[in-house]
Amino acid sequence: MTKSIPTSRGRSLGCGIRRRSCGLGASPAPGSEIVRRGRGRPKLISDELLANVIARQARDLFLEKGYARTAMEDIATRCHISKRTLYRLFSSKVEIFGAIVDDHNQSMMALPGDYDDLPLEEAIGRIFLVDIDEAAHRKRIEVVGLAMVEGRQFPELAAVLHERGADKAHAMLTKWLEAQAQRGRIDIDDARSDAIILMDMMFGALVMRRGESPQRPGGEDRRAHLRRVIRIFVNGVRRR
Fold first, then answer.
1. What is the pLDDT of residues 190-202, one digit of tens each?
2. Domains and their CATH numbers in the chain
3. What is the rounded CA–CA span in Å between residue 223 and residue 104?
4. Which of 85, 87, 205, 228 could form a disulfide with 81 if both were Cys (CB 3.0 to 4.6 A apart)?
5. Could you read off the pLDDT of 148-162 as tens digits, one per residue?
6. Rounded to the nearest 10 degrees, how much is the dihedral formed by the CA atoms of 183, 189, 195, 199?
7. Helix, strand, or coil (residue 119)
8. What stretches of the chain show up as alpha helix (H) in DSSP?
């Protein structure tokens, strides 16, 4: 079934995109198409959307086959586009990996954002997306595992992970903590250091699993465990 994508001019572009083939939350169905072109017709989706599609399909391929065993041709085939189109948007797999990191950041930390009217514990819970469903949580942990494994094997990917992943997240969280200190909500001496502590606490708790169980050691489910972690941090920095 053909979907329509609203444009900024208020029109809709008929686009032969099936939701599963777009990589917007699922893997492509066999034989599905990302872009269906007619002779002489303009592009049906923007380069920005297509680049996002490519990043998510490449992510799934990297999870299935590994980074080293996935070729640019594999990515083009999965996305039902030409290699010429792929290379026009991404010059290399490293660039695609960077786009995957950019996209993955949104599933790990919801910053920037306006949380000033929320209690501290709830604000941090929203920043670290405590309440996402288990399927979304499993997907983000899979990508974390992929990033850790591939980053150890390929120094160029480790550099991308730091620059566009951990360093970027740390800078945003530092800025948020500084703002909370200026508002008198928390008492901290070094926002950069405290941001690292909070990231270590939260991300460490996020990736700690026991097999496929959503529970943590001691029997707590993921959400309850993360909220306890947040409470410990907030109790340590709350202004008294």
1. 999 999 999 999 9
2. 3-91 (1.10.10.60), 98-237 (1.10.357)
3. 20
4. 85
5. 888 888 999 999 988
6. -120
7. coil
8. 47-65, 72-79, 83-89, 93-108, 120-127, 134-153, 155-161, 167-182, 191-207, 222-237
